[in-house]
Write a structure and sequence with these properties.
single chain; mainly alpha
Amino acid sequence: MRAVHLLAGAALTLTSAWAVAQDSPESLLPKMFQDPAPSAAPTPRPAPRPVTPAPRPSASASAQARPTSGPVVQPLPQAAPSDAALAAAPTPTTDSGVQFKRLPTLEELARMSPEDFESLIGRKVEFDMPPQARRAMEHVGLFDESEGGLPATSLAGANPELMRLALSGNRGALVSRWGHIALRRALLSRLDPPQGMSPQDFLALRVGLLLRMGEYDAARALLQDVDIANYSPAISDVALSVYLGTADITGMCPIMATQGSMREDPEWDAARAICDAFRGNSTAALAKLDRSLSHREMPRIDLLLAQRYAGAAGKSRRAVTIEWDDVNDLTPWRYALARGVGIMPPAALMKANEGRYDAVTALAPMVGLEQRAAASTRAGAMGILSNAAMVDLYAQIYSDPDTGAEWQGRAEQLRDAYSLPSPAARIKAMRSLWSDTGESGGAYAGRVLTAAAAARISPSADLANDAPDLIGSMLSAGYDANAARWSSVVERGSAGWALIMLSAPGAGQGASSGDVDSFIDADDSAGKRRAAFLVAGLAGLGRIDRSRARSYSNDLALNLDGDTRWTQAIDAAAERGDEASVVILAGFGMQGANWRLMTPRYLYHIVSAMNRVGLGAEARMVAAEAIART
């Protein structure tokens, strides 16, 4: 048997073994093929010479050899050789010179770890794919320019160290929902890395930022666009976090099979033990976790959760009691494994970590609808959930009689916002969903939830007082054309007028000085921040000329033309038409918990740069959002 055949068979067996969790993976071969027949005693032979295969018998010869009547009886398999016979048998030698005491069975191969297999054949194992199945490290991402992504060569002229800083230094929390959406789109586009940065490092930086943004499903999809053979230590550092975020520990198992030695830390070793259990070695895996528990390599709760997860594989199931009494922190490892085994941490522990895992919980199918709905408030305001996704979630709540009265009531209010005959009654139902004024973004998430319902309201002078809130709700989900229909209803210089002036497609006629002055005079926000954002947005979109923008900047002390290293970098990216750099730098400049942390000068440069590189729709939505959320 050639070594390459043995490797291919082992890889196929290992892959098949992960499909079903059991103690000993069953072979799909008929029983007579599972054990090799005993070898005949070796006889002296002359010097070896090339062996030619025997000619295949012809059909006529076969017909003559078969009996013409009577049943065809299949011969019984011969008895499996004993250990003594195996020990006495000659040692097979492969073309590479590797000698085996005996060839392992398929079941033995399935239970082997990569390290065991390496020791068996005496060299490093390369479980590789055929050349035609391999994926290049260029254009890594989920969609290209023709599918709505950014151009692959956007970063060709970017400074690699600046991009590294902008990606690694972004903590993931952005003040703008539309900024979050634009940044996610850029990170998932099929992009080439900047000159001087390796594709592996670029991928690891993108995946890491998606994780910090709460985009765990997107991070997993991007990670899986790369062949495991191309993993580097930087990619391995984020891989475990990706699968913890999605509570999919077994998703790590293909990585562990070929790249299991890339990291040496307790969490990685515990995840490798879980994969061993799901490959069929549950007894050995649980014993390894027992040793880790006795040696206190990880906190007790972490290893108990790992044992519970690993114990779900195979026939040797073990009852593991999870005790949270002395647990003071809910780490990603604990929350992921608890969800994976169907356990919710105590309410007090969840309360202490309120908001920390909302991005995960909102999309977790194993979590109850009420918990997902509560988490969707923050996730919707952040930009992780779309209007359609939130409506779908509330539709499930509405159709489930077991949900609590509070969430049933909210789901019924959303239904009323769509179905009541009177526009005034529908708006009243929407306002009940906008009533949350907490720091979690609940009020804005309510506007995202009702965006499509608001877009169904026909413009009417009788509803002029409701127009700003309705327009703000529409724009939260990008219904800019529907919002523009209200231009004949809203009063010039009002909040509704400002939203339409910033968001309407096309340059329009621009904003007159009188209308802008009226808005500034009527603005009662602290420090006239809404007026400052209006001027910054209009200037960035080119809807007021530079001389007027400079005049307003001086009057309101905005310093729109002031330079920093960040403004110089994003302006330079816009000058060379680099969409990806503009969005990545815009995301870096939008960091913060709320719009109070955004400055008009930064908003001006973000909107201007996006507009100049062809991202006008995103620029308009960001500018309008600044008014709607201030």
